[in-house]
Amino acid sequence: MIDFINFYLFPALAIGSVYALGAVGISMIFGILRFAHFAHGDLMTLGAYGVLAAAAVLPFNSVLLLPFGIVLAIVAALLVDKIFYQPLRQLPTIYTVISSFGVALIFRSLVQLVWGSQNQVYGSGGVRPPLIFFDAIRVSALHVQAIVATAVIALCLHFFLSRTKTGRSMRAVSDDPELAQVAGLDTEKVVRWTWIIGAALAAVAGLFAGMDTSAHPNLGWNLLLPMFAAAILGGIGKPMGAMAGGFIIGLAEELSSYPWIGDQALISPSYKTAVAFVIMIVLLIVRPQGLFKGRLL
Amino acid sequence: MTELSGLFFYLVSVLIAGGIYALLCLALNIQWGMGGLFNAGIVGFFAIGAYTSAILTTPETAKHLGGFELPIFAGLIGAAIIAGVTGWAVARICVRLKSDYLAMASIGIAEILRLVIVNESWLTNGSLGISGIPRPFGEYTAGRPADLVFLAYVWLIVLIVYLVATRLYNSPWGRSLRAIRDNEASAAAAGKNVERFRTQTFVIGCAFMGVAGALSAHYFRFLSPSATDPLLVTFLVWVMLMAGGSGNNRGAIVGALGIWALWSVTEIFTNRLPPEWATRSSFIRMLLVGLLLQYVLQKFRAGILPEKSPPLHFEDEAERPAPEK
């Protein structure tokens, strides 16, 4: 039981928070801009490398250097939206999907060009001792940080979306863009905030994912599929749903390799990604609007 | 003299790979150019075809499933069938939803297939790969002349697929498909079964992608998971079709050859750079291809050879007076 908590539950929640933070952005962009953002994973990579670059100069803990990654991701997202996505906005959204597919490649080759394609670790790279609770529960400090950070972000995001004017307009545009525009909401401002929040959360997710293993140029791309699954699971255009979806996908992936029956892992850990894919496929067949009644575009 | 023949056979190798890309491009043109379906997992269907044909045609070995030693043409047909069936399964689930979902599912299937190829070594010999894949007419030729034979073989298949694709495009089936692509609601109102047409399109395209994968396996005679580099193939094919002209079969071939020539020629230059720059320059090439796609999407959407719908012919045209200008 203790093994289950230490080796499966906490890692599952940690990877779940990475998915949750990434999926929020995907869900919001899909809800407001109406397209599946294929470059979101590589935006995470960019954020992770932004912190890495800052850590090379400044002698602080990587988590404290997070603002550098966030700024890099936000600037990249706003630039890409202005240069590449905005000119295509009048066309069917599938063109923007293709464009974002290209942006994914652009981000990745930039990362490879600037930082090289080898794995890079944060800080000294040594194994840090885990935190111990009640003499039995051992959790890595990083996992605790990731889970706590995600919980705090979820709370802030909830208040932002339900209490502030900008947050409310974002929900309005997501529900009905034409009506929102007729009602006089500043659509461009909403779009800008969507990118800012999406990119900032992507950078946080990217950093935690990179610190958990190591930073490499395919870091974000490899997480894209489970994040899409999480966004669909939570319902497109439902940021809180996407958060929940991220944790569910993370739990499903990790717990699928727990030896539930006998001593063998139920599903070989090398097929973890397949679990997310299967969930996504089942959802698309049975309930494409997701668990929390999201939009079906 | 040797330099000249070296150049000649370099050109042959570029044209063989170009032919395989032309096939992928024609296949994608059926899916995207005619049907408006976004396939982000081209490399997945390519890999299915490659492995199916490799398994069907190689001699028996203890390392992976096989020993069927079927003729290569049977391998190609097998590749088309398996890739088509996989495409059918994906399409069945996704065609009724917005095209973005098909994109997500197709990228997912490519990812899962990559996992299967790496992990299921009884089937594919895992990361060690499959070797000894025969070439067509391999028993009669060897060395460089064999490349010429293979070049002819590849382009014969490109020609066949081109003729099929053109026939499809001009047929009533293709016309309905374009109607669905351009205005789904009115096509549905006219009684066209949108989902059925889309599924058929996706399956046909995937089958041809499988054939292209099979040809590449027979060309290299060796197949490993690295041959299914997840992004590069998918991405290059998209750029090729967009630049060549989506909706135009000839444009697909022109785009494939043009972009492939650019890609290969820049490789010659970058290989002469000092080693620390040679690796970096491959990223610069990727970056430039990414930017090229953005440029094409914004300013050059119709491509080099834009789509041209065939003229309409009415049955009673002869009896009708010519329209006055």
Q: What features would you describe in this structure?
A:
The complex is a heterodimer of chains A (297) and B (325). With 297 residues, chain A is mainly alpha-helical. Chain A has one domain (2-119, 130-286): ABC transporter involved in vitamin B12 uptake, BtuC, CATH 1.10.3470. Chain A has eleven helices and two strands. Chain A has helices at residues 2-32, 40-57, 66-85, 93-115, 141-163, 165-175, 177-182, 187-212, 224-234, 239-255, 272-286, and strands at 131-133, 137-139. In chain A, strand 1 (131-133) and strand 2 (137-139) form a beta hairpin. In chain A, helix 1 packs parallel to helix 5 (141-163) and helix 2 (40-57) packs across helix 3 (66-85). The longest helix of chain A has 31 residues, at 2-32. The termini of chain A are far apart. Chain B is mostly helical and 325 residues long. Chain B has one domain: ABC transporter involved in vitamin B12 uptake, BtuC. Helices cover 71% and strands 1% of the residues of chain B. Chain B is built from twelve helices and two strands, in the order H-H-H-H-H-E-H-H-H-H-E-H-H-H. Chain B has helices at residues 2-34, 42-57, 72-94, 99-119, 121-124, 143-170, 172-182, 184-189, 194-220, 232-244, 249-271, 275-299; strands at residues 130-131, 222-223. A two-stranded antiparallel ribbon of chain B has the order 1-2. Chain B is globular, with a radius of gyration of 21 Å. The termini of chain B are far apart. The model of chain B has no long low-confidence stretch (mean pLDDT 84). The interface between A and B is large, with 44 and 41 residues. Chain A: Its main location: membrane. Chain A: Keywords: Amino-acid transport, Cell inner membrane, Cell membrane, Membrane, Transmembrane, Transmembrane helix, Transport. Chain A: It is found in: Cell membrane.
